[in-house]
Amino acid sequence: MPPTDPPASTPPTALAGRTALVTGASRGVGRSVALSLAQLGARLLVVARDRKALAEVQQEIVDLAAAAEVFPCDLASSSEIQALVSRVDAAGGCDILVNAAGIGRIGRPLHEMPLEDFDTIFATNVRAPFLLMRAVVPYMLAHGGGDVVNISSLAGQGPLANGAAYAASKWALNGLSYSVAEELRAHNIRVSVVAPGSVNTSFGGAGKDRAKMLQPEDVAAAVTMLVTQPRHAFISELRMRSTQKP
User: Fold this and answer.
1) 178 a catalytic residue
2) pLDDT tens, position by position, 94-127
3) Model confidence over 187-221: pLDDT tens digits?
4) What are the phi and psi torsion angles at 110 (to 5°)?
5) Which of 32, 125, 153, 217 could staple 4 via S-S, CB 3.0–4.6 A?
6) What is the pLDDT of residues 127-166, one digit of tens each?
7) How far is residue 81's CA from residue 62's CA, in Å, rounded to a whole number?
8) Is 84 within 8 Å of 74 (Cβ atoms)?
9) 26-46 burial string, b = 16+ CB within 10 Å, else e?
10) Is 102 exposed, middle or buried (0-12, 13-18, 19+ CB in 10 A)?
11) What phi-psi label fits residue 29: left (phi over 0), alpha (psi between -120 and 50 degrees) or beta?
């Protein structure tokens, strides 16, 4: 689907001169976020495991008259993240970081979950955002500010049967985000959480009416709103639900 048109009050060049790094950018929410930020003039650094899908997103961004660089990376691998950080530094850093990548492994009770699945969930959903924030914040500090948006979930605020590890990872991401926000707010760096309910992506939604679910473009619109707010304010948490229960 095409990116959601920005609000009429948002100038089409609102993000001109800014560089945005978006993880999980090959599909779903991450792709929609990357396209929406490009539509406002941002230069994109797009990150995901699927090199071919990233190349397709890169072309979509170029078609929007914006620039994009592709960074294939498995965010569950700390060594690949280290290599990614070096490439981002060489590319000139970033002003906006959107941690949209996430995995769930939902569908089985905790006592049946393999340890490697638990470790992979936390590596992708918590450690990767930590490592990327730690990497880009010095650049933001040196350049007078920036924006970090971490895509969490309503599952990070309540119980999720047969998804305990996923829920726990999102609770952890929330705590990490809120604490870092307090550390950085005085430095003109805004750290926000977007916590959607079920989104119509390949991630989940089995048995639900996908037409009634949140769409990736809905989440992208929320991210766009957060990073284009006046600099004197920020929204620390944004919870999203579909109007009708799917």
Assistant:
1) no
2) 999 999 999 998 889 999 999 999 999 999 999 9
3) 999 999 999 999 988 776 667 888 899 999 999 99
4) -55, -40
5) 217
6) 999 999 999 999 999 999 999 999 999 999 988 999 999 9
7) 25
8) no
9) bbbbbbbbbbbbbbbbbbbbb
10) buried
11) alpha
3-state secondary structure of 162: coil
Q: Which of 166, 167, 172, 190 is catalytic?
A: 166
Domain residue ranges in the chain: 19-240
Q: How many residues does the chain have?
A: 246
Distance CA 68, CA 4 (A): 19
CATH superfamily, domain at 19-240: NAD(P)-binding Rossmann-like Domain (3.40.50.720)
Contacts of 229 (CB under 8 A, 6+ apart): 190, 235
Pull the structure tokens for residue 189: 């760096």
Tokens 């004197």: give the residue.
232
* Residue in the structure block whose two tokens are 């949140």: 214
